[in-house]
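User: Sequence for Retinoid isomerohydrolase below. Tokens please.
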Amino acid sequence: MVSRFEHPAGSYKKIFETCEDLAEALPATVTGRIPPFLKGSLLRLGPGLFEIGDEPFYHLFDGQALMHKFDFKNGQVTYFRKFIRTDAYVRAITEKRVVITEFGTFAYPDPCKNIFSRFFSYFKGVEVTDNCLVNVYPIGEDYYAVTETNYITKVNVETLETLKKVDMCNYVNINGVTAHPHIEKDGTVYNIGNCMGKGASLAYNIVRTPPTQKDKSDPIEKSKVVVQFPSAERFKPSYVHSFGMSENYFVFVETPVKINLLKFLSAWSIRGSNYMDCFESNESQGTLFHIAKKDPGEYIDVKFKGAAIGMFHHINTFEDQGFIVFDLCSWKGFEFVYNYLWLANLRANWDEVKKAAMMAPQPEVRRYVIPLDVHKEEQGKNLVSLPYTTATATMHSDGTVWLEPEVLFSGPRQAFEFPQINYQKFSGKNYTYAYGLGLNHFIPDRICKLNVKTKETWVWQEPDSYPSEPLFVQTPEGVDEDDGT
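Assistant: Structure tokens for Retinoid isomerohydrolase:
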């Protein structure tokens, strides 16, 4: 699956150029054949505005949220796009400057204001961005564009009009939620975010939002915390991008990449600070793996630990013969991978892109296995007895269970990321196939398919083509897990 493509012409730089709204949908040129069963809309979100007037955004995740819509019908495709009218976007366009601090770009106070009001604006509290550039998903009958803060934005998926901004803090004890929830067949949504727990200590809450209500009330108003995970450090939550969910359990991976809350709260009084300045790594922590029962929610107080990894995306999680098996797209070590996603790095010439990526943590697809019953076992013995994996779990004398993974895919500076599966039929179940976006030194230049049982890989790649993450659509009468498009 290693990429054989070089990109010396630098055509990947187009990914990081500002786009404009479209007034109407455009017909797409189709090469090949689109299956006739493929009907409906594919929605994608990503950064689309990389500077305001003379002021640039500096980090990939600062670009303002642009929604793309592909409509499929009778083998034909139309394409439409529109910026989401978040507060961050509207105010920036109106004032022709960066108004709300983003991930890696500090918003300076309005230079037209007098010095007293500028000074005061540094201390009025954190104005959190609502730039919802990461994902879009349904809650009840509505669709929301999301980032990782407490704000989610309701959108009309037909017209791509922005409808309203919703603050999740109004409904549940949460500082923010991830952009990667789990959605059950009935429409129940589960998500995770950090919060202030008992005695002003940090914790992580799993929030359940019910499906469409018979009385047509908003399901978000009925959101509830179902279980709480403890935090390893009192004022430093780990960065959380996704979590695992099987039929009966949640899996939460607490990595050594931390948000220093004291820095976060004071950063806005320091000229030039942004979110990226608030991240640090706890090199001594390693990685902690937490599990909890789903219904009723109950934290299982056993310390599962492993070597330090960075991690953004869970692939799938399932139970088998008294074990929880979960597969991750991981990055070896404790360094924060987002340090390598500054736009200046990504827009560099190909030799420079490669040179920067040589310094970054190495990507690896890993399988971990957690035994659900660890009380009767003796120390020093591998507790994992599943015949199909080399992943191990070993009880140490202090009661910690040390996890070693099985590596499902590894290629130097070649990442299998943004994973997808046949989610409708195999989420939370023993599965065979994962699909991913292949990153070649952080440049997305291929689509990959991985058999997690045999480790066999397949790749689609064409010159000067830079795809988005894949999405699997099962053939209507399809029986096999990978019978689809």
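Residues 87-95 form the longest helix (9 residues).
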